Amino acid sequence: MTNSNSGVFYVAAGKKYVDEACDSAKSLKNINPSIKISLACNQDPEDKDLFDQIIRVDEQVTCRNEGLLFKVKHLYFLSPYEKTIFADTDTFFASDCENGFDILEYFDLALVPAPVDTYYPILESGQKVPCKPLNTGVIIFQKNEANDRLFKEWIDLYTSKLLSNSNLRESDQTSFTQVLLNSSSRMYPLPSEWNARFCFISAFAEPVKILHGNSRNIENIAYLINLNGNKHRVWIPHLKRCIVFKPYTWKHYLGRLLGKLGIMKTKKA
To answer: Could you give the CA distance from residue 251 to residue 73 in angstroms, rounded to a whole number?
Structure first.
């Protein structure tokens, strides 16, 4: 359960992202009205009452990579909470998220894997590590010594990459995963319900808590994804619907589909 030392934290640079943070905070208040919310930003939001604390950061951001670095530098060390749910600004809260803090009774941090990110960590030796990055759009973490080192090393590594290549294509996620390889922080892999990238095909077993992405119809997408929230289901973005798993019917449906395509095996006489 939430307490005075826990809360949700946003980091935003520029009006577009500050406005997004406000929209996300509104969705959160609709679900968890008593949860604490704070924002680190380089310009004030129009609706200051959404946030318990606003932390001004006097830094200019002029491009994508600078924006990602702004996030990396401040999401951990500027968080005013001992236990934090960090969320990117392009998020929408769809169901209760307060039990996320309970995870930190057993782990130092928790993130959802990013299966569509193909920028694998590469060590100084040139070795490519065969593990895809974790999605840093939603991070549940607590303040402790292990995480202090982890997040400091993330800042250092990502900063050095940008200094050596200002046009770096990989996101901050690859650097985070790379520093996690040798970290003493205990990391829990969150299920996709905590960071639902609804622009991609995704599988869910429980109600989605946080949708991650931009859409003018985000409330409707949240409704459709959670329509059968306690059933195993697969979200198909181009159909804008979930296919619900029904035991003993998948083989039947697959057989009918193969039959229509004319590739059913001919029965032996």
So the answer is: 50
Q: What is the pLDDT of residues 162-217, one digit of tens each?
A: 999 989 999 999 999 999 999 999 999 999 999 999 999 999 999 999 999 999 99
**245 and 140 co-located in one domain:** no
N-term to C-term CA, the chain = 65
| Angle at which helices 145-164 and 172-180 cross, to 10° | 130
Asked which of 126, 158, 190 is the last residue of a domain, the reply is 190
CA distance 16 to 228: 33
Q: What is the count of structural domains for the chain?
A: 2
What are the residues whose beta carbons fall under 8 Å from the beta carbon of 119, sequence distance 6 or more? 133, 169, 170, 171, 173, 174
- Record the tokens describing residue 169, joined without a space: 């294509």
pLDDT surpasses 60 at 144: yes
pTM for this entry? 0.90
Concatenated DSSP letters for 2-20? --TTEEEEEEE-SHHHHHH
